Amino acid sequence: MRRRILSRAAIRHAAIALILVISLVSIGTSPVAAISLEDYFEISYGFELDTDTVYYDDVFYATVTGEATCIETIPEVVRPVSEAEITFRIVAEPQAGGGSVTLNPGHTTTIKPFPYTQGDTYEIEGEDIPLQFPVGSESGDYDVLAELVEAKVHVPFGWFPVTEYLPLSQQPIGSVTYTGATNSPPNQPGNPSPANHATGIPINADLGWTGGDPDAGDTVTYDVYFGTGATPPLVSEDQAGITYEPGTLNYNTKYYWKITAGDNHAASTIGPVWDFTTAGQWDPWAYDENQDVTIQKMEAIHAIQDYFSQEISKAQAIEVIMLYFG
Fold this sequence. Notes:
By secondary structure, the chain is mainly beta. Helices cover 13% and strands 42% of the residues. Strands 3, 5, 6, 8, 9 and 10 form a six-stranded mixed beta sheet that branches. Strands 12, 14, 15, 17, 18 and 19 form a six-stranded mixed beta sheet that branches. It has a four-stranded antiparallel beta sheet with strand order 1-2-4-7. A hairpin with a 6-residue loop joins strand 14 and strand 15. The radius of gyration is 36 Å and the shape is rod-shaped.
């Protein structure tokens, strides 16, 4: 757990600037005021992380606490401001170098009511800001910082932006050690259909396989390689489904195919090369089982059954049925 309380100099340039300088700007007074800001406020605030170790998709928190006490009544000229808001994002910068990651894109702290009178105190009573490393963040040690996004004050005619007048743009909060998820590659494609080394496969057969990924939440796509050579070419890329329609195949031909699976983290798994051989040239008279040069009723029914089991095509089954009806 890390805690950082701002120094007197930082307080003077940040918190006091937030409460008093924005007031002066909102009514058209130069922010380089003739008054001494530290003569009007005693202010302390800080951020505290609830942990210094974060894993994968953990949500952790930065707690903002602070206090501003008016030690001398503010001049009447400043009092049109009724409240102030400051919005900041929380980021983490890798200590080893590289780009920062955003842990919370925007948190707004409201100062209301605005303290004007000697002895008045405004307290920030432990605002918890949820933080989370984005998916895919690199493991390592990070410095956590608050970055100013926007500041504005509310005056009788509405909200008035004062971001540009605040000198504080970035404030260190603490440090954390982040351990990201270890990604597992997709499952190896398996259970091919047609089965490996199968023969007599219909020329209208489709390809199918099993896939998936061991990591919950990962998405998987597939590249399909298919052809008549032992090193089949790519015929379908980044498809989500686990089937592929190669179209009408040639009779009595050996085909080779394989599947490569890839997940959304750029990990991939290459499947083995499978093969199958299609059936010989189609002959509807092959259903003339008793060789009496007549297609009997049961022989036609066998053709219909083979169609529903995808062993022959619809057109081929109709050919056998037409022979039955003469």
